[in-house]
Write a structure and sequence with these properties.
Layout (H helix, E strand, L loop, with lengths): L5 H14 L14 H6 L8 H20 L3 H4 L3 H10 L6 H7 L4 H11 L3 H18 L1 H21 L3 H9 L16 H4 L1 H16 L3 H11 L17 H18 L7 H13 L8 H15 L3
Helix pairs in contact: 6-7, 7-9, 8-9, 8-13, 12-13, 13-15, 14-15
Length: 302
């Protein structure tokens, strides 16, 4: 498939390889975790064009279900447009955020396992929840570990060597996105140590703020966050802010080259989030920890 659906074509061929009993990592650009690769198998049961059309329909229905009347506005958001144009998968993870907030512990655990199918997104979404469960609801961590073990062990039934093959493929390939859309873009100017410390500080702040703000902060701190995966910020700020900002970033990126201009997306989301808080920054952790622990425990769904 040339043009639209170029990422979906990779997923479809992964499914084809599995249907033929081959290793999904015998294909170029196949770097998804083994469990994710198995999930792509049903896509290959139909001709690629039909499967792609159904994939687009599913994404469209999902976008409308999640954003209601704002769906048309969100179609101006470049990461959403990319999901449809390329056939990428991150938009499909948005409902899992609702499961993370669920009162049902098994559902939250399942959501964790689903996010781990796309690790670069998982490290943006999961830490905020995991630290709170560690403090006040460890049963959710048990469910998370159980679901993750089941889902990630399933590929071994198909191909016992599949994890070794995945590691051999990704160990030398995942660095192609190093730099993300955040502070790691500064590494050439400031050095890895300084930028690493800055990213760590941002991560600590993210864990001590609200859930949506944490997503924007961890996007900045993530060294492998692709610009199109910022679709995960779809409810962090309104479409009328992120849509125009993303279009402006696309224009700037076209002029200067590269994807660095897309740092404007998480920065604008943070500007919106902090404007809701009156631009206040939490007090030092040492002074608020006891009270913070009490509040977290009180907020846990039962």
């Amino acid at each position: 498939m040339n043009g639209p659906g170029f990422d979906f074509e990779i997923l479809w061929h992964i499914g084809q390889a599995i249907l033929r009993g081959l290793s999904p990592y015998s294909l170029p650009q196949s770097v998804y975790p083994p469990a994710a690769s198995l999930i792509f198998t049903p896509l290959a049961l139909l001709p690629m064009e039909i499967s792609y059309a159904m994939f687009l329909l599913a994404n469209g229905v999902l976008l409308v279900a999640l954003t209601k009347r704002r769906a048309l506005g969100w179609m101006t958001y470049v990461p959403v447009l990319f999901m449809f144009a390329a056939g990428q998968t991150s938009l499909l993870l948005l409902p899992a955020i609702l499961l993370l907030r669920s009162k049902r512990r098994w559902a939250s655990g399942l959501a964790v396992a689903l996010f781990l199918l796309k690790p670069q997104v998982a490290v943006v979404v999961l830490p905020w929840f995991m630290i709170r469960w560690l403090i006040g609801d460890r049963e959710r961590l048990v469910w998370s570990a159980g679901w993750s073990l089941i889902i990630n062990a399933a590929p071994l039934l198909y191909r016992p060597t599949i994890y070794a093959e995945w590691w051999q493929t990704t160990a030398f390939g995942v660095g192609h996105k190093f730099g993300g859309v955040g502070v790691w873009l500064l590494r050439d100017q400031l050095g890895l140590i300084v930028v690493g410390l800055l990213a760590a500080a941002i991560s600590v702040l993210a864990l001590r703020t609200d859930e949506k703000t944490s997503r924007a902060l961890l996007t900045l701190a993530n060294p492998v966050m692709a610009y199109y995966d910022t679709v995960i910020l779809i409810d962090v700020a309104p479409w009328w802010m992120l849509g125009p900002v993303s279009l402006a970033a696309l224009g700037i990126a076209h002029i200067i080259g590269g994807h660095s201009a897309f740092v404007l997306i998480p920065l604008s989301a943070l500007l919106y989030r902090f404007s809701l808080r009156g631009l206040t920054i939490p007090a030092p952790a040492s002074s608020i920890w006891p009270e913070w622990r009490k509040r977290l425990h009180a907020q846990q769904p039962r």
